[in-house]
Amino acid sequence: MPLADPRPILAAARSGRYGVGAFNTTLLEHGEALVAGAEAAGAPLIMQVSENAVRYHGGLRPIALATLALAEAATVPVVVHLDHAEDVDLVHQAVDLGFTSVMYDGSKLPDEENRATTRRVVEHCHANGVAVEAELGEVGGKDGVHAPGVRTDPQDARRFCADTGVDSLAVAVGTSHAMASRDAVVDLDLVAAIAEAVPVPLVLHGSSGVDDATLSTVVTRGMTKVNIATHLNKVFTRAVRERLDADPKVMDARKYVAPARDAMAAEVERLLGVLGARGTAARQ
Ligand SMILES: [Zn+2]
């Protein structure tokens, strides 16, 4: 199926009060697992390549082409998204390669500069049919929306959307990145207040730190795109470790990566159910 535009997918989820899973891919097998899990759940999928993953691979093009090929071969709608790009040149590369979505992260910049740069990124992306996610910075300190104590102010979020024209907004409601345990306390009333105040779908970063019950609830309160990376990495790596422990003589990488890919696919399918997304691909 052709690469999907995230805007109608997120709009449908926002009005239907379910979540869209946005999961990171660093390895080819991650991407295969994400697509397999989304197909099993019958749900749309957002596959994310982060600026960190680009740095790991030494360039965007190889991981991008692999991810785009997986998306186009999928039987459910798949968006390929550049995650947390601080480098505007990298955003332009992603647009040129055919990504349908990018996150420009100017949260480390002074607030006015973040708004102005985000506005320019939006103009370039929209001219090329690409959707933009962004985040407010400075509101609660240098870690932007990702420090656990930081909270997004609903009216400031509303102004940020008006100033920049973004298609979705990452907000600070109690989560932080790369949490190893799922014990974040999400401010659900704030989620509802921001969802009421802003005209675009909201994005939860750091959702690996959120338990199943809260994930199910937060999407009913107005959160739409749910980013999960660390949790799936844990599932993948645990399966690799179990396989290697069980057979110390194994040499063929496929012998220990394939069970990890299967375990990750099963967890993706399960998480999409938790987000209420099962079967929603048919609504696109
Ligand atoms: Zn993030």
UniProtKB/TrEMBL annotation:
SUPFAM superfamilies: Aldolase (SSF51569). It comes from the Bacteria. Pfam families: F_bP_aldolase. Signal peptide: none annotated. Its cofactor is Zn(2+). Transmembrane segments: none annotated. This is Class II fructose-bisphosphate aldolase.
